[in-house]
Design a protein that fits this description.
Length: 152
């Protein structure tokens, strides 16, 4: 795969990760306050802003852990464990900010749902992308062809 394609895929992966984080927060909000009929103390806009900010931490941690490197031979269990660890750290940061501030009355159940959803959806995305890259590699796409000439 050439460098331009790798860059495009890395950017697309980062953007989709951020979108998954925000989508997970929206889904957790809907589950907590619409499906489970919880008492809403903070508006949806508060949780969306929180998700947008915490998605930056997700992207930073994924970049530091080199999770945007495109490889076809990566074992998925360690990747899923890393995603769960990053989700735990990011949710812990949110919980710390929420519960140390006296003016924020955030839902603990919403945070638990957010953690579960981000871990699940980010892992699912990685599994699907990994399968696609492997099948594309086997089919001869995204490979760099090299001709070696010479003797010895």
């Amino acid at each position: 795969m050439n460098r331009e394609n790798q860059l495009v895929l890395r950017i697309a992966s980062a953007v989709s990760d951020a979108a998954i984080v925000v989508l997970s927060m929206l889904t957790a909000y809907l589950l907590r306050f619409r499906v489970l009929h919880g008492q809403e103390s903070m508006p949806l806009s508060f949780y969306v802003r929180s998700a947008l900010l915490i998605s930056l931490l997700y992207l930073l941690l994924f970049a530091v852990l080199e999770m945007y490197e495109l490889r076809t031979s990566v074992l998925l269990l360690p990747v899923i464990q890393q995603i769960a660890a990053v989700s735990f750290v990011c949710t812990a940061v949110l919980a710390t900010v929420y519960f140390t501030s006296r003016s924020i009355h955030a839902s603990r159940l919403l945070l638990l749902l957010f953690f579960l959803l981000t871990s699940l959806l980010l892992s699912l995305k990685r599994v699907l992308v990994q399968r696609h890259l492997r099948s594309a590699y086997r089919a001869g796409r995204h490979v760099r062809r090299v001709l070696l000439a010479g003797s010895g």
